[in-house]
Design brief:
With 362 residues, the protein is α/β, with parallel strands linked by helices. It has 13 helices and twelve strands.
Length: 362
């Protein structure tokens, strides 16, 4: 018997620290019935800088820290504005929040944002804290998109590989028999964004122009790939800054253009290095990294299968993660798993999410 569908708004503010994506979706948590509008609200430079300050200090922060409380308040308001930009109400909001620390081996994952305040501002129920239950049960807490990818790709040829390149890069492998495997693969856009900010005064290497003007240093690339992360089997996950010290030690003093070229190749090589159960028939790329033509060419060189943006199969690559958290919010309401042993390493399929109701909701 089919379950009734709900209208959900998903919100995602990713590790690139660039802004909030909002997307409307109708789903029962298993089937996707239709998509509605999507919008992106870019952070002002001041908020992005303060978020980075919080991120850098996160391991030592307390919940009473003045900067953290101020940033949380401003961040929550940005999410409320993003909801209003859609011009449509919903039964439920999936509020991921902004990750400032992800250390599953230490039993910690920390996403900031005030769900109660968001529920008050929007007059809607809000599901939040999607990752903690998985980490508490022994999982990596990431990635959480694979079940959504599986629902989206129900009618696509398989094996299929979905690559998401945000601040961190991750993959979902989908088998013809329904098998799902997922993991973080390594840095995504984050090191390139930091390099662009430092050398260009811009939040990213727009169109890969800096990387295109440089040359990949194969010796340094091999050193980057020698990180112990690549020797461990999936499932596995990363914090945005997990590779920061490793990259700094290897890339210090390298000309900016060559550093950008080498870091771009590193992201692509790390994605291709992930062990897959079988070769994919095609590779679909989402996330901000798909807008970087140099990165897309590097990625295409790593696979024998076609490498295409997800728009090639009718998906909205800019809205995909936000749509995902609308989908997961409905799954959370129904008590359906958000993660599997093959996606996060959790011992058994794991539910998650906390429902924050308003005075106006049932």
């Amino acid at each position: 018997m089919a379950h009734p569908t709900l209208h959900a708004i998903g919100l995602m503010s990713g590790t690139s620290l660039d802004g909030v994506d909002a997307a409307w979706i109708e789903t029962d948590g298993e089937r996707i019935v239709r998509f509605g509008p999507a919008a992106t609200l870019h952070y002002a430079d001041e908020l992005r800088a303060d978020l980075r300050r919080v991120l850098d200090r996160a391991p030592a922060l307390s919940s009473h820290d003045a900067l953290l409380r101020d940033v949380t308040c401003r961040l929550t308001m940005e999410h409320a504005i993003a909801v209003s930009m859609l011009g449509m109400g919903a039964d439920i909001i999936g509020f991921h929040g902004q990750t400032i620390l992800h250390a599953p081996k230490a039993g910690r994952t920390w996403q900031i944002g005030d769900a109660a305040e968001l529920a008050r501002l929007t007059r809607m129920k809000v599901v939040h804290d999607f990752r903690s239950a998985d980490v508490a049960a022994g999982g990596q807490g990431a990635p959480l998109a694979p079940l959504f990818h599986a629902a989206l790709a129900q009618n696509l040829p398989k094996p299929l590989l979905v690559v998401n390149i945000g601040g961190v890069a991750n993959i979902t492998w989908l088998g013809a028999d329904g098998a799902i495997m997922a993991c973080d693969t390594g840095p995504g856009n984050a090191p390139l964004d930091d390099l662009a900010q430092a050398h260009l005064g811009r939040p990213c290497d727009m169109d890969g122009k800096l990387a295109a003007s440089g040359k990949v240093d194969k010796v340094l690339l091999a050193q980057l790939m020698a990180h112990s992360f690549f020797a461990s089997p999936p499932p596995k996950s990363l914090d945005r800054l997990s590779f920061a010290i490793h990259i700094e030690q290897i890339m210090t003093g390298v000309p900016a253009a060559d550093a950008a070229a080498t870091l771009t190749a590193f992201t692509a090589r790390a994605i291709a290095a992930a062990p897959l159960p079988a070769r994919p028939k095609q590779v679909l790329v989402c996330g901000g990294g798909r807008h970087n033509p140099v990165l897309m060419r590097q990625l295409a060189s790593q696979f024998s299968a076609p490498v295409r943006k997800v728009e090639a199969v009718g998906w909205d690559g800019d809205a995909l993660e936000a749509q995902c958290f609308g989908f997961l919010a409905v799954r959370a309401l129904r008590g359906l798993p958000l993660s599997l042993p093959s996606t996060t390493g959790v011992p058994a399929p794991q539910t998650g999410g906390i429902v924050q109701r308003t005075l106006f909701s049932a």
